[in-house]
Amino acid sequence: MSQKFFDRCEQGLADLMREGRYKTLKIFEGPVGATAPIEGLGDTLIFCANDYLGLANHPEVVAAARAALEAFGAGTASARFICGSTVAHRELETALARFLKVEAALTYSSAFAANNGVYPALSKPGDVIFSDELNHASIIDGLRLCHREVKREIYKHSDMADLEARLKAHQGISGCRFIVSDGVFSMEGDLVKLDRIVALARAHDAVLIIDDAHGLGVLGETGRGIAEHYGLMDKVDVYTGTLGKTLGGISGGFAAGPATVVDSLLQFSRPHIFSNAIPVSSARASLAALRIIERQPQMVGDLREKVGYMRGRLKAMGIQPIEGESGIIPVLVGETHAAIDLAQRLLQEGLYVVGFGFPVVPEGTARLRIQVSGAHTRADIDRALAIIERAWPREDRGKRVAAGE
Ligand SMILES: Cc1ncc(COP(=O)(O)O)c(C=O)c1O
Question: Which atom of ligand 1 is least distant from the CA of 112?
Answer without folding.
Answer: 11
